[in-house]
């Protein structure tokens, strides 16, 4: 007895169930369209195995060991084809696709067969006992023959006119005690495997629980609740209703009064072990199930919740509606994955063996690199950052905000004290006192300050060099990841080239500083000049002295007169002789009164002018020494006592410093020197701020930008180096192969979704390609016949029905 025949003999459901039956009948054409498409997608993505990241709509069957899962699946198919036994039978996930074919009465065939995806050439197996043996053999191949478990899928298609289009995943039953080769944590492993399927929002959960167990403690419902807390995706199945205690029934369970589920429950009667041993067919078991429900008055009002046929219809209807909800997001995810995989595959490039092809690939890499380098420098890069400065903007920042700003903050006199300047002025006068401020101290001091500009200028060049190295690293394209040797050689070439450009930059900077030091142009129009410097210096000194003037106490008139006369005589002396002894402090002896009296006696009438002590001092000493040696001792001692009044000078110290106090004239000279120094330093600083960046840009930045491509060609574009530099790693080859397979699968999946009928779409986008996926497909993306101002459309080839794309073309092309 087929599913359709059992349905015809089943008691009519109540009015509320009739509507559900009508909806199911209305959904049947849609189910016959979308479920096979999803099955085809599952076959396509099965080529990727565990690498697939696209989750497709499916129904996972979960339950504890011996809960009746296999019996439910066999009842849905109507044939015996699953392994049986007292211990764990399902040891690998079985993806079961039920595909309805046309019956003989509808012009088809009543043949039923199965196809395994792992068998070649889609070999059909008409003997369902052979299907069972193949499942057992394939399970033992990976999981062993001693109760081991594996997470690798077995994919089986069942073609029959007696089934509805459903995709089911039979998962291993939850077990508590490990047996055979099972690990000690077999329960945790199986739960983890089950959750990996049912935690996906695209998966419906068929939770199977025997009626003779406590539903509140059902393993299937517990694991389903962990993945689906709200119960939106869980369908409950109560098995073994025929072995409940006499006088009890499962009506409260089926009505959801014990553990409520949004999608409800369906009760079924399985074949018992005796039926299996007696080889009672599934069709006979379906007939016995029908008789059981008719004979139990407690179930008469629950016709829409009882029996395998109702379970098949419910699963089909829920799965179709579930697929309709997921279709827009599914296509979007496939489109995004297709674009991303295509870009990744393009980044790995293609392998070429010929010298000409290798040369073209190498030349393309070098050209693209140089273009990227120039674009980054000029601020024309495609990926412009909005969070930080990059490329040429960083170079401008170094010039203006670091180099120029640092120079402007430098005070040329910050490391020069007044004593330093006064010492320089005095050293410049030599043994004479200068009547005017000498020019040499200004020359020496300004050159010393100019020389200080060399180090920051060279440091600026180093900063720019480092930035260019960073820019060169950012230009390393993803395509170069596959050629580590080429990448290394390019990095070496540009590093050497940048260093070659740094050398003339530094040499030019040194020449600029030397030129400024070699010629101090005091005729520069911006230079302050001597006259203006003297005026400003006098004014500065005068203003600085006024606050320090204080009233002095009255002195005695005689003392004041003496002080005035003494000062007047000193001024006269200074005005006549010039500056006082160069401002150097010298300790002078004081002539005693005795020596003044003794001098006339010893030197005769000329002693009042002091001439003997000045012009004949050496002769006098020679005579005194001779007399000391020739005279008797008593006379010699007397002569010595007379000579004790002679003046002896102190020897000058090794290091001479200027005196701590300085005159007003010296203060003016110091201030004049400072003004001249600052004025000319500002002129030189502005020249350096302008010339150094120009030198760096000319010899380093622009030179590398102009000549980089030529250097690459000269250094790397050699035929004998092609094979070495274009040798890619094994990892890249593996990635290219993997992405190529993934790309092929995603292209197939996208085309398969294009075959969906118009009524399967719950959201229309009028054919617009918003993801750019069309350029990664082999299908045409535009038509000269059907073109609008916003987008172009093409009719789907190879299909007899109108697809959503063809209808959108018609509507857009003719203004409907």
UniProtKB/TrEMBL annotation:
| GED domain mapped to chain residues | 670-761
Q: Where is the composition biased (Basic and acidic residues)?
A: 553-562
Q: Which InterPro entries match?
A: Dynamin (IPR022812), Dynamin_GTPase (IPR001401), Dynamin_GTPase_CS (IPR019762), Dynamin_N (IPR045063), Dynamin_stalk (IPR000375), G_DYNAMIN_dom (IPR030381), GED (IPR003130), GED_dom (IPR020850)
Query: For the region Disordered, what residue ranges are annotated?
Result: 1-25, 538-573, 764-816
Residue ranges annotated as compositionally biased, kind Low complexity, are: 564-573, 781-796
Database matches in SMART domains: DYNc, GED
Pfam families named in the record = Dynamin_M, Dynamin_N, GED
Q: Does Nucleotide-binding count among this protein's keywords?
A: yes
Q: Does the keyword Nucleotide-binding apply?
A: yes
Q: Where is the Dynamin-type G domain?
A: 53-328
Spell out the protein name for this chain: Dynamin-type G domain-containing protein
Source organism: Brassica campestris (Field mustard)
Print the organism lineage: Eukaryota, Viridiplantae, Streptophyta, Embryophyta, Tracheophyta
């Amino acid at each position: 007895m087929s599913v359709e025949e059992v349905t015809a003999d089943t008691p009519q459901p109540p009015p509320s169930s009739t509507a559900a039956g009508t909806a199911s009948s209305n959904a049947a054409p849609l189910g016959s369209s979308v479920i096979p498409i999803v099955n085809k997608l599952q076959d396509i993505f099965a080529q990727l195995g565990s690498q697939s990241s696209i989750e497709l709509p499916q129904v996972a069957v979960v339950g504890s060991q011996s809960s009746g899962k296999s019996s439910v699946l066999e009842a849905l198919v109507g044939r015996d084809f699953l392994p049986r036994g007292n211990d764990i039978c399902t040891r690998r996930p079985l993806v079961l696709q039920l595909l309805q074919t046309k019956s003989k009465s509808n012009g088809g065939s009543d043949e039923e067969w199965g196809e395994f995806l792992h068998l070649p050439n889609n070999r059909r197996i008409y003997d369902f006992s052979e299907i069972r043996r193949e499942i057992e053999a394939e399970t033992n191949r990976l999981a062993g023959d001693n109760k081991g478990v594996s997470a690798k899928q077995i994919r089986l298609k069942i073609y029959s006119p007696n089934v509805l289009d459903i995709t089911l995943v039979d998962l291993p039953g939850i077990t508590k005690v490990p047996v055979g080769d099972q690990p000690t944590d077999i329960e945790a492993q199986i739960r983890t495997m089950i959750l990996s399927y049912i935690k996906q929002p695209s998966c419906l959960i068929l939770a199977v629980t025997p009626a003779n167990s406590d539903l509140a403690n059902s393993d299937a419902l517990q694991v389903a609740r962990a993945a689906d807390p709200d119960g939106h995706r869980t369908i409950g199945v109560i098995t073994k209703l025929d072995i409940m205690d006499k006088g009890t029934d499962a009506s409260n369970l089926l009505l959801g009064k014990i553990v409520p589920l949004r999608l409800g429950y369906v009760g079924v009667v399985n074949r018992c072990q005796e039926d299996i041993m007696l080889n009672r067919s599934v069709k006979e078991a379906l007939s016995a199930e029908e008789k059981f429900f008719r004979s139990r008055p407690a179930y008469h009002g629950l016709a829409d919740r009882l029996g395998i046929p109702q379970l098949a219809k419910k699963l089909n209807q829920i799965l179709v509606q579930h697929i309709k909800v997921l279709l827009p997001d599914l296509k979007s995810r496939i489109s995004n994955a297709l674009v991303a995989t295509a870009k990744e595959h393009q980044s790995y490039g293609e392998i070429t063996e010929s010298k000409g092809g290798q040369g073209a690939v190498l030349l393309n890499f070098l050209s693209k690199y140089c273009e990227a380098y120039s674009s980054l420098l000029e601020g024309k890069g495609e990926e412009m950052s909005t969070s930080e400065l990059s490329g040429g903007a960083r170079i401008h920042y170094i010039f203006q905000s670091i180099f120029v700003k640092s120079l402007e903050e430098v005070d040329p006199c910050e490391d020069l004290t007044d004593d330093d300047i006064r010492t320089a002025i005095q050293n410049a006068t030599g043994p004479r006192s200068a009547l005017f401020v000498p020019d040499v101290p200004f020359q020496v001091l300004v050159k010393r300050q100019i020389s200080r500009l060399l180090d920051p200028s060279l440091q600026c060049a180093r900063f720019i060099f480092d930035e260019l190295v960073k820019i060169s690293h950012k230009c390393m394209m993803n395509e170069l990841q596959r050629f580590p040797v080429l990448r290394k050689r390019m990095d070496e070439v540009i590093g050497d080239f940048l260093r070659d450009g740094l050398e003339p930059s530094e040499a030019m900077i040194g020449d600029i500083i030397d030129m400024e030091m070699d010629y101090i142009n005091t005729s520069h129009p911006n230079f302050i000049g001597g006259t203006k410097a003297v005026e400003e210096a006098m004014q500065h000194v005068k203003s600085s002295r006024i606050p320090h003037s204080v009233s002095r106490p009255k002195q005695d008139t005689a003392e004041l007169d003496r002080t005035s006369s003494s000062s007047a005589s000193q001024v006269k002396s200074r005005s006549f002789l010039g500056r006082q002894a160069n401002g150097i402090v010298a300790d002078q002896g004081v002539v005693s009164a005795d020596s003044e009296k003794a001098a006339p006696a010893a030197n005769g009438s000329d002693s009042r002018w002091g001439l003997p002590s000045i012009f004949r001092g050496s002769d006098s000493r020679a005579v005194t020494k001779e007399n000391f040696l020739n005279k008797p001792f008593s006379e010699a001692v007397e002569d010595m006592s007379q000579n004790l009044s002679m003046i002896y000078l102190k020897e000058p110290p090794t290091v001479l410093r200027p005196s701590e106090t300085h005159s007003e004239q010296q203060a003016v000279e110091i201030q004049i020197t400072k003004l001249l120094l600052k004025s000319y330093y500002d002129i030189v600083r502005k020249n350096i701020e302008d010339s150094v960046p120009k030198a760096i840009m000319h010899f380093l930045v622009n030179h590398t930008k102009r000549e980089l491509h030529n250097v690459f060609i000269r250094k790397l574009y050699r035929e004998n180096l092609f094979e070495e530099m274009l040798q890619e790693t094994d990892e890249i080859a593996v990635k290219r192969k993997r992405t190529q397979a993934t790309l092929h699968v995603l292209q197939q999946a996208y085309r398969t979704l294009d075959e969906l009928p118009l009524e399967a779409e719950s959201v229309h986008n009028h054919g617009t390609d918003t993801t750019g996926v069309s350029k990664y497909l082999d299908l045409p993306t535009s038509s000269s016949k059907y073109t609008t101002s916003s987008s172009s459309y093409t009719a789907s080839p190879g299909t007899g029905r109108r697809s959503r794309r063809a209808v959108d073309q018609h509507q857009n092309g003719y203004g409907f």
